[in-house]
Every structure is written in structure tokens, then in C-alpha cells.
TrEMBL record:
It is found in: Cytoplasm. GO terms for cellular component: cytosol. It comes from the Bacteria. This is Chemotaxis protein CheW. InterPro entries: CheW, CheW-like_dom_sf, CheW-lke_dom. Residues 78-224 form the CheW-like domain. SUPFAM superfamilies: CheW-like. Its main location: cytoplasm. PROSITE patterns: CHEW. SMART domains: CheW. It holds the Pfam family CheW. The keyword Cell wall biogenesis/degradation does not apply.
Length: 227
């Protein structure tokens, strides 16, 4: 025997559970032989068992919904990319290799520099960090032409190279964007520009043609420039 349960029961649930509290219990004709002993249906083990079954079923439904939501989210995979500009060219780099976007700092040249890409060192919060030219590494045109605006401010990207952080000056930072992995997969199979130096693909973004850099190849090139 059970008492009145304040749960929403579907038709299938109602068929599976005998709601005797509504037939012969306190909400029925009160003909149940156990009613005298328990006074109220809520004190009966039958009521407790029915409530437990409903709660267990609800928990299972919630788990199924959560699993379904996770599956949908997994199907829409994205990757975070930092968009920035060098001269007239827009590029993208995976944020997993990015440490920080910092204000532009003075670069101090070094005597007998080891490579053309090594510009010198910059002071980053009291520490001297090697500064490299992405223009040189990527084989880009040396022109610094690009959008002119008072709001455009050059920045330095601090990236995590294999031997430690390095900084690279850039002309403008657009921001970090989550890009659909399907778009990136298509970009990696794109045209001739995808075979450019340290490039995984070319993709359209906000009306621009964006060069998506291969961070592993790029970081390897950075390491070679420092040794």
C-alpha cells in the first residue's frame, strides 16, 4: 500500500506501478487491510518501494539525456585559434601553443646572432626572452603594409617553444575564435596555399583568407633558430 506520491508519472510508469493508494488507500475507499496498522499510506513499504522505483527511473532518464547532450556536443567539435596579422596577411595559430598576448616591447639586438629569424631579446616582466621574426620564419614579404587605424596596435605573442617561451611581434591581433573542426578539416585539404611554409590550410574567416599555421612545424623551426 502506498500514499499519494507528488511525482509526475507517465502513462507507461502508471501502468508499471500499482497505485493502490488511489484505489484502496487513503485516497481511495480505505478498504486496505494494512491501513489500520500504518495509519497512512506513506508509512507503508509498498509506497516507499513505488517512490524508489519512480526516482530510479527519473535518474536513469536524466543520465540518458545528459549522455545524449554530451554526444551532440562531441559531434560539434571546435578548435580555438588566435587570429593575427603580419603585414597584409592574416594568420591563425592554435591557442594550445600560446602563452600570452603582450604589449609590444623594445627588442635588443644581439651581436653575432645565430639566425636571420632571431631578432634579439625582449624584456618580459623582468625576464629576457628570445624574440623571433615570424615574417622571416614563414618567408613572408618584408612589407609592413596593412590596415591603418588608430585602434590597430601591434602586439607580441608569447608562445611556448620546445626550449622555453619566445616572443614574436605581430602587427595586429583580432582575437581568439572557436572554429568548427569540419571547416578546419576542409581547409587542410585546400588549394596551393595549403602547401606554403608551416601551413596546415587556408580558410575563409570574416571575409578574409586566413592562413592556418601548423604549430608543430612552426615550433620546430623556432627551436632550430635558437640552436
Amino acid at each position: 500500500m502506498t500514499g499519494s506520491v507528488s511525482l509526475n508519472v507517465t502513462h507507461a510508469d502508471a501502468q508499471a506501478i500499482d497505485d493502490c493508494w488511489n484505489r484502496i488507500g487513503v485516497h481511495g475507499d480505505k478498504s486496505c487491510g494494512l491501513l489500520a496498522e500504518h495509519i497512512h499510506c506513506r508509512n507503508c513499504a509498498v509506497y516507499s518501494a513505488a517512490a524508489t522505483r519512480l526516482l530510479d527511473r527519473y535518474a536513469l532518464q536524466q543520465d540518458d539525456q545528459a549522455h545524449g547532450s554530451a554526444t551532440v556536443e562531441a559531434q560539434v567539435a571546435t578548435r580555438s585559434l588566435l587570429m593575427f596579422r603580419l603585414g597584409e596577411e592574416w594568420l591563425a595559430l592554435s591557442t594550445r601553443s600560446l602563452v600570452e598576448v603582450a604589449p609590444l616591447q623594445a627588442v635588443h639586438s644581439l651581436p653575432h646572432q645565430r639566425s636571420r629569424a632571431l631578432m634579439g631579446v625582449a624584456n618580459v616582466r623582468g625576464a629576457l626572452v628570445a624574440c623571433l621574426s615570424l615574417v622571416e620564419l614563414l618567408g613572408l614579404e618584408a612589407s609592413t603594409a596593412g590596415p591603418s587605424s588608430a585602434r590597430v596596435m601591434p602586439r607580441m605573442l608569447i608562445i611556448a617553444a620546445h626550449g622555453g617561451p619566445v616572443v614574436v611581434p605581430v602587427d595586429e591581433v583580432d582575437g581568439i575564435h572557436a572554429i568548427d573542426q569540419r571547416l578546419l578539416d576542409a581547409a587542410s585539404r585546400s588549394g596551393p596555399q595549403a602547401s606554403a611554409k608551416y601551413t596546415r590550410g587556408v580558410l575563409p574567416f570574416n571575409g578574409r583568407s586566413l592562413r592556418w599555421l601548423d604549430e608543430e612545424q612552426l615550433l620546430s623551426a623556432v627551436t632550430r633558430s635558437l640552436t
